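Course assignment 3, question 2. Fill in each field.
Student: A.L.
Task: Predict the tertiary structure for the chain below.
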Amino acid sequence: MITATGHLRTALWLAELGLPALPLRAGKQPFGNCRACTRSACGDRPHMLAAGPCSCPAPCHAWGAATTDPNILTSPAWAGAWRQAAAVAYHPGGAGLTVLDLDDAESVAWARQTLPATKTVSTTRGEHWIYRGAMRSVNGVRKGVDIKSTMSYAQWRGPGTGTMTALPDAVRALAVKEPAPVRPAPCSVAMAASAEAGQCPHRSPAYLERGIAMAEQRIKDASDGIHRAVFRLFLAVLSAHGGCGCLTEAHIDRLFAAAQAKGESLRHCETAWANALTTLGM
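Answer field:
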């Protein structure tokens, strides 16, 4: 057991309140608590979701490290992390909460005009609005606004002010996006001999469905290196289908869902997708 000082003391206090806590290093990033997790080598998958080689003591790291168990928080395996910790975070979804992360004055003003009042916590540039109730975490639901709840963590910045209220439908609705095509571009893929004149073969429902289903299955079958596997599959899908405008948000959501089911974070999905678009010059 290690001595409860500094950030660890805060984490133990949060645990007593029922808020699963974890240490953060500089840059608000989580620690890996074993060598297998160094530099995200195991794919940043929480132990409870990992199917690969990570052999961390449960729970592992990232949001999955958040715990209310004082024996885990004070275990020797976490001693180095607490010595280097720059802050403390918590897993809102694990406590049945949702944090609306408002990143600037403009988004704070929007929330005050649009959403029901609740407990608020001041941050460096904006505010955290904390609601009672959990939901899917989504970044960038509008300019300067992220939703942090399940499979996510939020930095602890104090108890805040005001009375926490129930998660409103208006916040849940922020995570729902209408299907929209990816930026269309002229199709440069050669026409298949069997395609009808003037019809892009990538718009064939069967062809596109087969491509998305294959990508979902390959992500599901990936046993390790999930970051690399997801990027390669995103790259393959965009290479085959991204140039014709036939992909919709519904298709992208399916790929993201497959990756998140393997423990990939939404942030990593978004980064992998953006990197694949950049690689292909889209």
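Instructor remarks: The longest strand covers residues 97-102. Confidence is low (pLDDT under 50) at residues 46-53, 178-199.
Grade: pending
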